[in-house]
Design brief:
By secondary structure, the chain is of the alpha+beta class. The chain has one domain. Helix content is 34%, strand content 27%. Strands 1-2-3-10-9-6-5 form a seven-stranded mixed beta sheet.
Length: 169
């Protein structure tokens, strides 16, 4: 009987403090302070109010359909969006998302990775061979939030402008 109480108590704590999000991801929105930290570490350089360049030369510019900058859009993938059907969620820190994106860009420039779709937008899928995220949203919840090791990078234009970057199955 005592064991049942302990288990019930632990489960209550887990749900009350929303620990699954704390274990799986950042569990907080990306802020202007996070942008300043990435800038101060030299991972991104602000070129205009809505434009940054990564160390390796990727351009993160413009806004998504929700009015968020592309940088904010990418970082939305560090927190689960439970209302979406499927949502790739990074479990690595914000700075590691930028580092991973640059590592992928280096492989692309060396010709080690070809696009899975090549047109106005080029789509690259890269297997990191390590857990970098999980499948979130309703589908992820149904499947028990499976781990993800691949990322999708979508670029457009002649300059390497990032449209989005997120974990995929």
């Amino acid at each position: 009987m005592k064991l049942k109480r302990v288990i019930l108590y632990v489960l209550t704590l887990i749900l009350f403090f929303n620990l699954p999000d704390k274990i799986f991801g950042q569990n907080r929105a990306f802020t202007k302070d996070d942008i300043r930290i990435l800038e101060s570490k030299g991972l991104i350089i602000r070129e205009r109010p809505d434009t940054w360049k990564t160390k390796e030369g990727l351009i993160i510019s413009g806004y998504d359909s929700d009015g968020k900058t592309r940088l904010e859009h990418i970082m939305k993938h560090a927190v689960d969006v439970k209302g979406k059907n499927r949502h790739g969620v990074f479990t690595v820190e914000y700075e590691n998302i930028i580092i991973l994106m640059d590592e992928l860009w280096i492989s692309i420039k060396k010709g080690e990775l070809l696009p899975s779709h090549d047109g106005a937008r080029r789509v690259y899928v890269y297997d990191t061979k390590k857990k970098i995220g999980y499948l979130g949203g309703r589908e992820g919840q149904k499947q028990g939030f499976p781990s993800l090791k691949k990322v999708r990078l979508v670029l457009e234009g002649k300059t390497p402008r990032v449209v989005t970057f997120y974990p995929v199955k």
